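Checklist before submission:
- one chain only
- standard amino acids only
- sequence pasted in full

Submission:
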Amino acid sequence: MKDLWSVIEDQVFDVESTAELFNPYASINPEFDREDAASIRRENLRRYVFDHEKGVSLLLVAEAPGPWGCRFSGVPFTSETHLVDPNFPLSGCQSSLRDKAYTEYSAGIYWRLLSPYYDSIFTWNTVPLHPHDADDPLSIRTPRQTEIEFFLPVMEKIVRAFNPQITLAVGRKAENALRRIGVDARYVRHPSQGGARLFEVGVLEAINELGLLPSY
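Returned file contents:
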């Protein structure tokens, strides 16, 4: 896991932000972020990665950080509200300036279903940086193909490090990216925009096939 973490440090943390791609692990926006926000998000992700150093059975690969979730938490499909909740299996710190931690609708759906299986699953983003419109830093846009291609080597190392029994692609962008690196992933619907039920069906099918038992 130390080797994987070194890859993340070198190939994710060291990437510079642009006008349309924000690196939450290297940059801050003083309008929204604490002065040490980038280091907070790096530490949140480090805890998440090393929580799973024994490996996982199920890997879920999503598209990119959303503006209310991973953009501030540093952990894929996770809100700040999760990290500061003592009942959530991963503890972390808030990086935003808000009095109340950010929460994300999709992350809420995600972890209501998956938190009991936290030890057996890992989640990664095809593009680990936050893609947004140039004039709106808290918007979300679809990652460009060049951005996806840039981070394919990182995703490939994630898959190899965990060697899961089943890989789920959360959305078509993730499915296509995984196919590019030779991973025959199963497509599941993203939980946002009315996809919660189909997401649940696809994920539970994999969980039942693997015989995963709740650990929380």
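Reviewer check: The CA atoms of residues 27 and 155 lie 22 Å apart.
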